[in-house]
């Protein structure tokens, strides 16, 4: 057993302080108490406040290589999501497997530095530069798994079915690396991805389709119905107004409306963005139990719009966060974005009675489901010790006291306050470590 003594550790009912945690050699919590354990073994003292490790429910690792490089806009031209997408296609066109592994390794190390302990990789860059499948269908997925293993982060690989150019349109040549022509082709890719996941003890598998734009409606239904019954199912929906308009023209319904009417939405579904919904869609999606995956840094950067968080929460909606294009890697910044966008549009401060508690709870429990795992508390005996620890000697955290500590972390802290990140009871990042690029 290895023991830690944290200044404080967040549980669902509040702070445990001090908190003694003992883990076995797999990093599974075997001891959790405010009382010092009776042990002759050394106890590592950590003068910090431990949050549960953040769950990154949506990542496209290759896009990290262009984050911050599509920000110069020519005067009198229209730059929006669709022109950004052209830049992203250019990036994807020549991305080699070695590059994928290198970029993803760097990204995942920086995610750990920001307090993420798990990442869900929504992966659609499958084939070679000509658009031909690699000999190993899951070559690129295997690189992502290898990167996660090197960095020491947990990963859920979600190989994505991408079939069309847009609603009813054949793929553009620039999308050739993403394409599986049929459901059977996609299932072969999914089978190979399962083998890739077996290479790393802390890798899991999910499945999904890119969006209503890029897979035939009937094939989306078939993929879900004939796909694995136990895995989380991910897809993008309703990110852009233009997409909503084309969906209405092609399918006769808005994207979320179509999903509600055609798939048995429940808590296995992780629907990314859901930015543009009517009040009725918002209510029905929340009541369905499906999870919205919100990526406020990317959604802000791309000018997508503002998710109706307050209304969604009123109906009990579940949601997680993701870093998507990786323009922002700091989960606290993304949580603040979510809350502040509501405040800016409602002219009220109290999006929630206790915003920090709600933000942490939703992001954690939905995020865990997006990864294909489950948990009953942030930390519990029998679960792995995955945590991000904040330095309570930082002035604003030191003055907050236990009553305001969780809110002071969520609303004021930046990455410099992170003392370290623990994955399976071992430091995946510790302040002062040189980040290897
Ligand atoms: Zn995405």
Describe the structure in your own words.
It contains 13 helices and 17 strands. It has helices at 81-93, 97-113, 139-151, 183-197, 217-226, 241-251, 255-262, 279-288, 296-301, 309-314, 331-346, 355-370, 395-412; strands spanning 2-11, 14-16, 19-23, 29-33, 43-52, 54-59, 116-123, 154-161, 203-205, 207-209, 233-237, 269-273, 291-294, 318-321, 387-391, 418-423, 426-430. Strands 6, 7, 8, 9, 10, 11, 12, 13 and 14 form a 9-stranded parallel beta sheet that branches. The longest helix is centred in the last third of the chain and has 18 residues, at 395-412. The structure holds zinc ion. Zinc ion binds next to loops.
In short:
The chain is of the alpha/beta class. It has helices spanning 81-93, 97-113, 139-151, 183-197, 217-226, 241-251, 255-262, 279-288, 296-301, 309-314, 331-346, 355-370, 395-412, and strands at 2-11, 14-16, 19-23, 29-33, 43-52, 54-59, 116-123, 154-161, 203-205, 207-209, 233-237, 269-273, 291-294, 318-321, 387-391, 418-423, 426-430.
Largest sheet: 9 strands, parallel
Proportion of beta-strand residues: 15-25%
Count of helix runs: 13
Rg calc: 21 Å
Ligands and ions found: zinc ion
Number of strands: 17
The low-confidence runs, each spanning 5 or more residues with pLDDT under 50, are none
What is the string of helix and strand elements? EEEEEEHHEHEHEEHEHHEHEHHEHHEHEE
Through-space gap between termini = 33 Å
Query: Helix fraction?
Result: 25-40%
* Derived structural class: alpha/beta
Give the overall shape: globular
Indicate the mean pLDDT: 96
């Amino acid at each position: 057993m290895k023991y830690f003594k944290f200044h404080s550790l967040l549980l669902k009912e509040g702070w445990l302080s001090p908190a003694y945690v003992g883990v076995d050699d797999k990093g599974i919590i075997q001891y959790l108490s405010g009382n010092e354990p009776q042990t002759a073994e050394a106890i590592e003292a950590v003068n910090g406040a431990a949050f549960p490790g953040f769950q990154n429910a949506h990542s496209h690792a290759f896009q990290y290589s262009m984050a911050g490089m599509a920000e110069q806009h020519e005067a009198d031209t229209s730059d929006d999501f669709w022109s950004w997408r052209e830049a992203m296609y250019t990036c994807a066109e020549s991305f080699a497997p070695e590059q994928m592994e290198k970029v993803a390794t760097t990204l995942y190390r920086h995610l750990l530095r920001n307090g993420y302990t798990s990442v869900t990789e929504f992966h659609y860059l499958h084939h070679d530069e000509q658009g031909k499948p690699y000999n190993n269908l899951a070559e690129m997925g295997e690189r992502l798994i290898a990167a996660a293993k090197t960095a020491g982060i947990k990963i859920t690989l979600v190989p994505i079915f991408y079939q069309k150019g847009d609603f009813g349109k054949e793929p553009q040549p620039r999308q050739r690396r993403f394409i599986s022509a049929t459901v059977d082709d996609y299932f072969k890719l999914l089978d190979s991805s399962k083998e890739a996941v077996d290479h790393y003890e802390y890798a899991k598998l999910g499945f999904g389709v890119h969006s209503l734009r890029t897979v035939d409606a009937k094939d989306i239904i078939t993929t879900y119905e004939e796909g694995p019954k136990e895995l989380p199912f991910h897809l993008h929906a309703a990110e852009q107004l233009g997409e909503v308009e084309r969906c209405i023209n092609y399918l006769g319904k808005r994207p979320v409306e179509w999903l509600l009417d055609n798939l048995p939405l429940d808590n296995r579904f992780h629907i990314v963005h859901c930015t543009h919904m009517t009040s009725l869609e918002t209510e029905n999606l929340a009541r369905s139990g499906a999870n919205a995956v919100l990526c406020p840094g990317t959604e802000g950067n791309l000018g997508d719009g503002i998710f109706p968080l307050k209304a969604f929460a009123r109906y009990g909606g579940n949601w997680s966060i993701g870093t998507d294009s990786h323009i922002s890697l700091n989960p606290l910044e993304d949580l603040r974005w979510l809350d502040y966008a509501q405040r800016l549009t409602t002219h009220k401060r109290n999006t929630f009675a206790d915003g920090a508690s709600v933000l942490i709870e939703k992001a954690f429990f939905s995020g865990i489901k997006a990864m294909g795992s489950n948990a009953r508390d942030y930390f519990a005996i029998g679960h792995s010790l995955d945590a991000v620890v904040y330095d309570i000697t930082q002035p604003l955290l030191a003055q907050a006291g236990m009553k305001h500590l969780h809110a002071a972390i969520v609303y004021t802290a930046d990455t410099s306050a992170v003392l370290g990140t623990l994955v399976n009871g071992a430091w995946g990042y510790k302040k002062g470590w040189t980040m290897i690029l």
